[in-house]
């Protein structure tokens, strides 16, 4: 039996991106319920949706709740077997929804990962992996499609990258939705860790593809972006008790190197202040599992540093 599908699109302004995203979703080969969540955006997205897209379910939030809050509102607004989160800066190929939905024919699968491409045809993301310190990395970013599909991966798949992420609703019911305590960056990593700890599998779906414009909705490399990324890292270090475990010293050394490098290159403390704020916020987060099968313990210290500077093709 074909699974029913909710596609949740969180938006904050950038109407032209949203319009293109919706046009591609409306051409999907498998019918789906499209839910657009306006995160109290600054433009007239809600009015445009209600006037021109009557078939789309619109959730208009009265205050900005961030990426996780907007996604969760959209998930709760639906009831389909499969939930696919799609950033509004993604143009989905016509078979993306159908291919991702078919992955859930296997009852052990809790999440599925498409092959996302950059506008120039290189790989944007082919799922994410995580090292023993719970640091997450995008797989195959910058590689060619042939490299991603033919090479034997040296990093174990943990779960989907946030730009397009497919989940079994019953798996989300079991482990919980995205943690709204994370401002931005790290929400999908945390959810992937919790799904893995609960015994759910994640699978790659190479023929489910889309183009991720990437960085169109946030300043890539800006102080704000680095601060929010640092917040997510500090939050998860605290929530998962990494510094109290066997990899605590490694995590401290790695974070120190990253923060010093960010200071030298960017001449600000955005990455450091973000981590400190996330560490404080993580103290009141709910308890996380300590054993996560999907974490790749083969990613060593030097490998982790290499991944952090963007060499993610393996």
Automatic annotation (TrEMBL):
<comment type="similarity">
    <text>Belongs to the glycosyltransferase 2 family.</text>
</comment>
<keyword id="KW-0808">Transferase</keyword>
<dbReference type="InterPro" id="IPR001173">
    <property type="entry name" value="Glyco_trans_2-like"/>
</dbReference>
<feature type="domain" description="Glycosyltransferase 2-like">
    <location>
        <begin position="7"/>
        <end position="175"/>
    </location>
</feature>
<comment type="pathway">
    <text>Cell wall biogenesis; cell wall polysaccharide biosynthesis.</text>
</comment>
<dbReference type="Pfam" id="PF00535">
    <property type="entry name" value="Glycos_transf_2"/>
</dbReference>
<keyword id="KW-0328">Glycosyltransferase</keyword>
<protein>
    <submittedName>
        <fullName>Glycosyltransferase family 2 protein</fullName>
    </submittedName>
</protein>
<dbReference type="InterPro" id="IPR029044">
    <property type="entry name" value="Nucleotide-diphossugar_trans"/>
</dbReference>
<dbReference type="GO" id="GO:0016757">
    <property type="term" value="F:glycosyltransferase activity"/>
</dbReference>
